[in-house]
Amino acid sequence: MADTKPDKPGFFSRLFGRPADDEAKPTAAEPSEAPTPVAPGPGEAGLAFTTAVTAPEAPEPVVTPLSPDLAAAPPVGEIAGADLQPIEQDVGPAALAPLAPPPAAAPFTEPSPAPQSWWQRLSQGMKRTSSSLSDSVTGLFTKRKLDHATLEELEDALVRADLGVATAMRITEAVSAGRYDKEIAPDEVRAILAQEVEKTLAGVALPLVIDRSMKPYVILMVGVNGAGKTTTIGKLSQKFRQQGLSVMLAAGDTFRAAAIEQLKVWGERVGAPVIARPQGSDAAGLAFDALVEAKAAGTDVLIIDTAGRLQNKAGLMAELEKVVRVLKKGDPAMPHATLLVLDATVGQNALSQVELFQKLAGVTGLVMTKLDGTARGGILVALAAKFGLPVHYIGVGEGVEDLEPFAARDFARAIAGLENV
Ligand SMILES: Nc1nc2c(ncn2[C@@H]2O[C@H](COP(=O)(O)OP(=O)(O)OP(=O)(O)O)[C@@H](O)[C@H]2O)c(=O)[nH]1
Ligand SMILES: [Mg+2]
């Protein structure tokens, strides 16, 4: 269909060969020079403050005959000196935490003598989920005939493990089929569990395919605070770079200075330029600038970070919608992928997060992080059954290799506590 709006010359029309409307204006008006210097991070500020507070000259020891105990006490200067150390040590790292490179330093340090395979990391990471399920199965099926009560208890255990009612019922039915009133070994139950989970997941385990002809293929990362968006961007960038793709990052979390710094650290690590603006800048404008830069540079993949947002922050919600709108004005197919990053530890809450972000930004795929250290990994199965959205990657740790494409069979066997045969 022909666009009948009058053409306005500007960045937008030069870039996309069609007119921009008012949304793109503020962006076009602002320069896109990057990276923009950002305010000193909280780590630096924290250190400076600590030094100022904790480095007074020790006062002259006061010699008074008040108490004989004082004679045994260390001089005041020593006491003050002793106090300085712990304060500086405590405050420094704590203040640096948001800025410190994520502990994902593995590829930049000496390789460990026996590097773990992905299966090892996955199965170990998911130990808490699998052992809580496995314990229920062992408890229920050891030397016991399959009866109605056992099946109900199994269903309850599966629901408690966050697998979702529909999947729990399917698994229970599969376990009972032809075995009623017979003994069934826990291992058999685990094998059926794995089979059924795999069936549920098979349709959603889809790779994220980068269309190299896009230049840039635009990926928007969304999710609530702390879900793992920025870390996942770093891990993904590393993967894309290893595939020979050029990557540009947009520090669209303009909310926090530390978030911009965190992305810059990742950008440096993986060799991806980072487009940033000072804290508080318009995120949609930044996204647009980054798009212009990525196009000009012929970049393969542009990944846009966004601020984590909570359901009650209407302003941040509106900002995300604006980012999507501005990108769509460039090309209705943009963003080519909108990845919702979900933290597995939130369990059932992940379901409402999917609904919210689907409405807000049109999620095209999921990444589930923090499957390590939680017993709630079953939520991924419930998500698959309920939404059928592609699950592209899962994360089982903070390291750069702790993110891998999602594979239904591996996940199903890991959750059931089976070996990978
Ligand atoms: N254990 C574990 N930690 C993870 C994983 N993915 C991310 N993290 C950690 O989760 C914390 C939050 O990650 P971020 O990437 O900063 O999260 P974010 O979504 O960008 O957070 P905001 O910027 O506040 O919205 C960091 O300490 C990460 O190292 C994972 O798969 N496993
Ligand atoms: Mg972040």
Per-chain topology:
Blueprint: H1 11-16, H2 25-29, H3 42-54, H4 76-96, H5 118-125, H6 127-141, H7 148-160, H8 165-176, H9 186-202, E1 217-222, H10 229-242, E2 247-250, H11 257-270, E3 274-275, H12 283-297, E4 301-304, H13 314-330, E5 337-343, H14 349-361, E6 365-369, H15 379-387, E7 391-395, E8 403-405, H16 408-415
Parallel strand pairs: 1-4, 1-5, 2-3, 2-4, 5-6, 6-7
Antiparallel strand pairs: 7-8
Helix pairs in contact: 3-4, 5-16, 6-7, 6-9, 7-8, 8-9, 9-16, 10-11, 12-13
The structure holds guanosine-5'-triphosphate and magnesium ion.
Q: Quick check: average pLDDT?
A: 79
Biggest sheet statistics: 8 strands, mixed
Strand content: 5-15%
Tell me the CATH topology of the largest domain.
Rossmann fold
Domain count, please report it: 3
Number of strands: 8
The computed structural class is alpha/beta
CATH superfamily of the largest domain: P-loop containing nucleotide triphosphate hydrolases
Bound molecules: guanosine-5'-triphosphate, magnesium ion
Distance between the termini: 54 Å
Briefly, what CATH class of the largest domain?
Alpha Beta
Order of strands across the main sheet: 3-2-4-1-5-6-7-8
What radius of gyration results from the CA coordinates?
27 Å
Question: Helix fraction?
Answer: 40-55%
Low-confidence stretches: 1-9, 19-106
